[in-house]
Write a structure and sequence with these properties.
With about 300 residues, this protein is of the alpha+beta class. It contains ten helices and 14 strands.
Length: about 300
C-alpha cells in the first residue's frame, strides 16, 4: 500500500535520498529448471522496478543462485561492501549432546555458559563501555528518534532509511517479535540494537537484526552486546549471529567482543549508472541483516 511504499526501499547515498528495490527469494520447480524461467522472472522483476522509478535493484543471493544473476541478468557483486556473517557461541550444550550423551552436553554447556558470563563480567569491570547503565528496552519508538537519525546517517555514504516511521514499520509493528533496546548517555539517545530469536532443529539462534550508534561513540555498542549476551544465557540461546561490513568501525568491536568472522555475504545490484557510482565511490557502508529479506 501507499504507506508501505513511503517507508520501504529508501536509502541515503552521500546524504541524498533514493528509492531502492530488493529481489528476494527465487525458486524454480525442478521439473521446469533449465528452461530460462529464472532469468525471465528476474529480468521482468527488474524491469518492473525500473519502470516504477527505483534507482537500484539489489539482492543477497545464496551461492546456488548467484551465478544465474551474474550470467543471465546483468547483476554484479558489489565488491567494496564486503559483508561478513559473524557469530558468538553462547551455549554448546546442544552441539555436545548431538555428538555424545545428553547429560554430558548439559554439564559441559552449563560450565561453558558460566565461564562466558564470568569472562564478560570481568571485561565489564575493565572496560566502561560494557556498562549496562542507561539501556532501556522499548515497545514504542521515542519522540526524539528522528533527531538521533539525522545525526547518525551522515557518517555513512550508504545507509537504509531508519527514521521513526521506518523503524516502527520494520520492527515494532512487525508480526514477528523483536526485542528493541535503546542506549542513552546524559539523556541523549546515542544508539540502539534489536534482535529476534529463531528456533531450528534444537538450535536457538539469536539474530541481531539491526544496530546503530552515533559516530565517535561506536565503542558503546559493547554495552548493548553485553545486554544481549545476558539475555542469551537466560534464554538458553545457542549462538548470537550478526552481519557487518568488514570496513565498518563495528567490525573490530564485534571481533574484540568475541564474534567469529564467518562466510562472506554477497550483495549484488543490477548494473546501471547509479549502481556504478555506488561501486566506484562508496566506502562507508552500514548494512545489517535487516536490510535484506533474510530476517
Amino acid at each position: 500500500n501507499e504507506k508501505q511504499r513511503e517507508i520501504q526501499g529508501k536509502i541515503y547515498f552521500k546524504g541524498k535520498k533514493h528509492i531502492i528495490a530488493e529481489i528476494g527469494d527465487t525458486y524454480t520447480d525442478p521439473d521446469y529448471q533449465r528452461k530460462g524461467l529464472f532469468s525471465m522472472l528476474i529480468n521482468q522483476t527488474r524491469k518492473d522496478a525500473e519502470d516504477k522509478g527505483f534507482s537500484v535493484i539489489y539482492g543477497t543471493p545464496n551461492k546456488q543462485s548467484l551465478p544465474g544473476y551474474e550470467k543471465k541478468a546483468n547483476f554484479k557483486t558489489i565488491n567494496n561492501i564486503n559483508i561478513h556473517s559473524m557469530s558468538l557461541l553462547v551455549n554448546i550444550s546442544p552441539i555436545i549432546s548431538r555428538k555424545s550423551h545428553w547429560i554430558l552436553g548439559l554439564v559441559i554447556g552449563y560450565l561453558y555458559s558460566i565461564f562466558i558470563l564470568c569472562l564478560y563480567e570481568l571485561k565489564k569491570l575493565i572496560n566502561k563501555t560494557y556498562s549496562l547503565k542507561e539501556i532501556v528496552e522499548i515497545e514504542i519508538i521515542p519522540n526524539d528518534w528522528d533527531d538521533f537519525w539525522k545525526k547518525a546517517h551522515v557518517s555513512h555514504n550508504f545507509i537504509f532509511l531508519r527514521d521513526l516511521k521506518a523503524i516502527e514499520w520494520r520492527f515494532i509493528n512487525h508480526p514477528n517479535k523483536y526485542r528493541f533496546y535503546i542506549l542513552k548517555q546524559h539523556n541523549e539517545l546515542i544508539g540502539y540494537l534489536t534482535y529476534r530469536i529463531l528456533h531450528e532443529k534444537g538450535i536457538i539462534n539469536l539474530v541481531i537484526a539491526d544496530f546503530l550508534v552515533l559516530k565517535g561513540r561506536e565503542e558503546y555498542l559493547n554495552s548493548l552486546l553485553f545486554r544481549v549476551l545476558k539475555d542469551s544465557i537466560e534464554q538458553s540461546v545457542t549462538k548470537i549471529s550478526i552481519w557487518c561490513p568488514q570496513d565498518s568501525p563495528y567490525f573490530r568491536i564485534l571481533k574484540d567482543f568475541g564474534f567469529i568472522r564467518g562466510s562472506n555475504v554477497p550483495v549484488i545490484c543490477y548494473q546501471n549508472d547509479f549502481a556504478s557510482e555506488i561501486q566506484d565511490s562508496c566506502h562507508k557502508w552500514h548494512f545489517t541483516i535487516s536490510d535484506s529479506d533474510n530476517i
